[in-house]
C-alpha cells in the first residue's frame, strides 16, 4: 500500500502525545480507514486511530489513557469518570477491569441527566453531583474522591478495593469519600463493604487485592505494616500482613512485587537483606509466609496479585483461629513493634 505522508505524520504526532489520533482532514481519514481494513491501524471508537503495533505494545491502562486523551481532543467539555478517570489519575486498578471496560467500547462521562436521556453507544453517563472535576494532562476527570465513589460500586470487590485504597493511600480522608457518596445518594451494599475494609495502609495494588481476598475468604482483618526490630543488628523491618493466632503463633504474609523480574546488580544487596530478614523472623517465632504473586510477570497485570497469599493464609488459618487488628485499621498496627 502506498505511503501517505500526512497520515503517518499525524499518527506519529499523536503517538508522541500519548493519545489516539482524531483526524480532521478527509484525505487523512480515508487513508486511515484503508489501513484499518488492511489491519495496520486500530480504531476502537469512531474517529480515533492508532498504529496497531503501537496499540499492542501498550498495557491496558496505557491503552485506556490513549483512548481517553483522544476523546478529549474531540470532546473538550467531557468529564471522564470511573475506570477512565482511575487510569488517567494513575490509581491502582487491575488489567482485567480495564480490559473489560475497553471491550465494552464505552467510557464513563459525568453529565447532567435530562429528559431521561440514557447511554449512547460509546458513552455511559454518570450523574454529576458532589466532587469538582480536575484537569490532568489536558483531560477533565472526576476528583479522586468522586472516582473512588464511582469505582466502589463496580464489581468485583477486589478491583473496587484497589481504587479506593489507592485514593486513601494518597492522602484523601475516608470521610471525604463517604461524604461525596452520600451527597450523590450512592451508598449501596457494595460501596458500604468497600468503605468498611478499605485502608491507606496497603502500599500497592497487590496488597489491596490480597486484603480483599482475605476479607472475601472470611479471614480476620490482619494488622498491616507491622514493624519488627532485629535484636542482633537493630535493623527494623515491616511486614505486609500479620495475624496473632489463639495458640500464640504469629502468621506473617509478605507479597513479592515485580522487582525480581527486573533484577539488576543493584538489587543483590536488597535480596541479601531480604534473606537475612527471613532468617531473623524465623529465629523470633513468626511463621513467615513469603509468597510470590503467582504469574506476576509485568505482562500478567495486577489482577493476579494476592492469589498465592490467600492460599497461604487459608492453609495456615484452617489449623487455628486467627486474630487481626481490632477497631479501625492502624489502631493496633504497632502492637508487636519494638522501639527503634
- Helix count? 13
Mean pLDDT: 78
Q: How many strands, which pairing sense, and closed or not: the largest β-sheet? A: 5 strands, mixed
- Could you spell the SSE succession in H and E letters? HEHEEHHEHHEEEEHHHHHEEEHEHE
Number of strands: 13
Briefly note the structural class of the backbone: alpha+beta
Strand content: 15-25%
Portion in helices: 40-55%
- Give the total of domains: 3
Coarse morphology: elongated
Biased composition (Basic residues): 272-282
Biased composition (Low complexity): 318-328
Region (Disordered): 268-340
List strands and helices in order, with pairings:
Layout: H1 5-16, E1 21-22, H2 26-37, E2 41-42, E3 48-51, H3 52-57, H4 60-74, E4 79-81, H5 82-89, H6 95-104, E5 107-111, E6 123-127, E7 133-136, E8 139-142, H7 144-152, H8 157-169, H9 174-183, H10 189-197, H11 205-216, E9 223-229, E10 236-245, E11 250-256, H12 268-284, E12 287-292, H13 307-317, E13 322-323
Parallel strand pairs: 5-6, 11-12
Antiparallel strand pairs: 1-3, 2-3, 4-5, 7-8, 9-10, 10-11, 10-13
Biased composition (Basic residues): 272-282
Biased composition (Low complexity): 318-328
Region (Disordered): 268-340
Short description:
This protein has helices spanning 5-16, 26-37, 52-57, 60-74, 82-89, 95-104, 144-152, 157-169, 174-183, 189-197, 205-216, 268-284, 307-317; strands at 21-22, 41-42, 48-51, 79-81, 107-111, 123-127, 133-136, 139-142, 223-229, 236-245, 250-256, 287-292, 322-323. By secondary structure, the chain is α+β, with helices and mostly antiparallel strands. The chain folds into 3 domains: 1-57, no CATH class; 59-200, no CATH class; 219-323, no CATH class.
Amino acid at each position: 500500500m502506498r505511503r501517505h505522508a500526512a497520515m503517518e505524520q499525524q499518527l506519529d504526532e499523536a503517538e508522541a502525545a500519548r493519545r489516539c489520533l482524531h483526524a480532521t482532514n478527509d484525505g487523512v481519514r480515508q487513508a486511515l480507514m484503508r489501513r484499518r481494513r488492511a489491519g495496520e491501524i486500530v480504531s476502537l471508537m469512531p474517529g480515533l486511530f492508532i498504529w496497531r503495533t503501537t496499540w499492542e505494545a501498550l498495557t491496558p491502562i496505557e491503552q485506556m489513557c490513549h483512548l481517553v486523551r483522544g476523546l478529549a481532543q474531540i470532546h473538550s467539555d467531557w468529564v471522564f469518570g470511573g475506570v477512565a478517570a482511575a487510569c488517567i489519575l494513575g490509581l491502582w486498578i487491575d488489567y482485567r477491569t480495564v480490559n473489560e471496560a475497553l471491550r465494552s467500547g464505552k467510557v464513563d462521562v459525568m453529565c447532567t441527566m435530562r429528559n431521561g436521556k440514557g447511554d449512547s453507544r460509546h458513552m455511559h453517563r454518570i450523574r454529576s453531583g458532589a466532587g469538582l472535576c480536575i484537569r490532568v494532562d489536558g483531560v477533565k476527570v472526576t476528583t479522586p474522591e468522586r472516582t473512588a465513589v464511582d469505582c466502589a460500586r463496580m464489581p468485583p470487590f477486589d478491583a473496587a478495593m484497589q481504587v479506593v485504597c489507592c485514593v486513601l493511600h494518597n492522602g484523601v480522608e475516608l470521610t471525604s469519600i463517604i461524604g461525596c457518596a452520600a451527597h450523590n445518594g450512592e451508598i449501596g451494599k457494595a460501596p458500604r463493604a468497600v468503605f468498611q475494609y478499605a485502608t491507606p495502609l496497603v502500599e500497592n495494588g497487590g496488597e489491596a487485592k490480597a486484603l480483599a481476598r482475605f476479607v472475601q475468604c472470611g479471614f480476620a482483618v490482619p494488622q498491616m505494616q507491622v514493624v519488627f526490630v532485629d535484636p542482633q543488628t537493630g535493623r527494623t523491618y515491616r511486614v505486609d500482613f500479620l495475624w496473632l493466632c489463639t495458640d500464640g503463633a504469629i502468621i506473617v504474609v509478605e507479597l513479592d512485587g515485580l522487582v525480581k523480574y527486573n533484577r539488576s546488580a543493584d538489587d543483590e544487596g536488597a535480596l541479601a537483606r531480604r534473606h537475612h530478614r527471613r532468617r531473623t523472623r524465623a529465629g523470633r517465632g513468626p511463621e513467615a509466609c513469603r509468597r510470590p504473586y503467582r504469574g506476576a510477570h509485568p505482562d500478567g497485570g495486577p489482577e493476579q496479585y494476592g492469589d498465592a497469599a490467600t492460599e497461604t493464609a487459608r492453609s495456615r488459618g484452617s489449623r487455628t483461629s486467627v486474630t487481626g487488628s481490632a477497631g479501625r485499621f492502624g489502631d493496633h498496627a504497632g502492637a508487636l513493634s519494638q522501639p527503634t
